[in-house]
Amino acid sequence: MISYGYQQYKAQSVETMTKGEMLILLYDEINKRLLRAKKSLAEGEVQLFEADVQRAIDIVRYLIKSLDRRYPISNDLYRMYDFINFDLSRLKSGRNLSIIDEITPLVKDLRDTFKEADRLAKNSVNAVKSNPDSSVG
């Protein structure tokens, strides 16, 4: 019974997230999976390592598919995601932990950039809501 309530809570929280919050959550999940993969490989847990890296790859592929190519920034993001995807594939096949150290700062920078963009977007919406007479028109 408690588990059902928790599942409802999780579903509702995801449904009420902004697109920016969802992106931040996805970047956080990539970082979490990379940290777990690093720990798993160091402990000799190859199956867990591969599962975590594969999950990170799946997330990056989702990000690539979800790009709206009408915007010029999408091409830059596509190239970044493609680079990350390539390195994750190298990581999975070669089990070279230094690749995690190369990818993690890039993923964190993307996360921080989208977090700031989401904050600015929320502030902009709140400013218009609090002063509707100042809207452009």
Automatic annotation (TrEMBL):
Tell me yes or no: is Cytoplasm among this UniProt entry's keywords. yes
Superkingdom field: Bacteria
Keywords of this entry: Bacterial flagellum biogenesis, Cell projection, Chaperone, Cilium, Cytoplasm, Flagellum
Q: Where in the cell is it found?
A: Cytoplasm, Cytosol
Q: Which SUPFAM superfamilies match?
A: Flagellar export chaperone FliS
**Name the UniProt record assigns to this protein:** Flagellar protein FliS
GO annotation terms (biological process): bacterial-type flagellum assembly; bacterial-type flagellum-dependent cell motility
Q: Which organism is it from?
A: Clostridium aminobutyricum
Q: According to its UniProt record, which protein family does this protein belong to?
A: Belongs to the FliS family.
